[in-house]
Amino acid sequence: SLFNVLKESEMETNRSDECWYVRLDDVPRAVKFPFPLKELGFFWNKVGPEASFDWKLEFTIRLSSLERYAVDEIGGVSYRTEYPNAVLKLPGVVHRYAIPEPRDAVYFAYSIDLADAMAAANLFQMPPVWKIELTPKICEMLECAKQLMEHSREYGVADRLDLL
């Protein structure tokens, strides 16, 4: 699986037993892409208590879990979504969830200052969480992201991550 490959990799990034991530907000860009990534990370076997926040601008792909469904409350509306799924976390919108069983996910975080421009570009899909299919193309893109993370400080690599 993708995460078995990830776990075996030797990455020079921020790393713990359950998460690899890179901060990109301070990495110079060669291209002025309008929506530069702030942070990119992979989680596996993540478990967590109930959490609530309204300060993120993040797109997360929840790859798998021991549970069949993810349960979220977003903006006061409850969602029960089968895995794999994607979720959009917006600043100013309260998002509550818990992770009682291990799950694997990848997230793409952006500066909240980009929220209005992203909304104007029609990048926010509603409902904010939906079931997805992990197609070969999506898996290829995630593998590419993982490979690029190892080189995120090299010239032009952050630009390539922005374009994923």
Protein model, in words:
The protein is of the alpha+beta class and 164 residues long. It has one domain (2-163): Jelly Rolls (Sandwich), CATH 2.60.120. The protein is built from four helices and nine strands. It has helices at residues 2-8, 115-120, 136-149, 157-163, and strands at residues 14-15, 19-23, 37-53, 58-65, 69-74, 77-82, 85-89, 95-110, 129-131. Strands 1, 2, 3, 4, 5, 6, 7, 8 and 9 form a nine-stranded antiparallel β-sheet that branches. The chain is globular, with a radius of gyration of 16 Å.
Label this structure with key terms.
164 residues, alpha+beta, disordered N terminus, Jelly Rolls, 9 strands, globular, 9-stranded antiparallel sheet
DSSP strand content: 35-45%
User: Spans of 5+ residues with little confidence (pLDDT < 50)?
Assistant: 1-13
In the CATH hierarchy, what is the architecture at level 2?
Answer: Sandwich
Oligomer: single chain
Helices and strands, in order, run as HEEEEEEEEHEHH
Q: Average the pLDDT over all residues and give the rounded result.
A: 89
- Tell me the total number of β-strands: 9
CATH topology: Jelly Rolls
Q: State the helix count.
A: 4
Give me the Rg, rounded: 16 Å
Largest sheet: 9 strands, antiparallel
CATH superfamily: Jelly Rolls
CATH class: Mainly Beta
- Tell me roughly what share of residues is in helical segments: 10-25%
- Indicate the structural class: alpha+beta
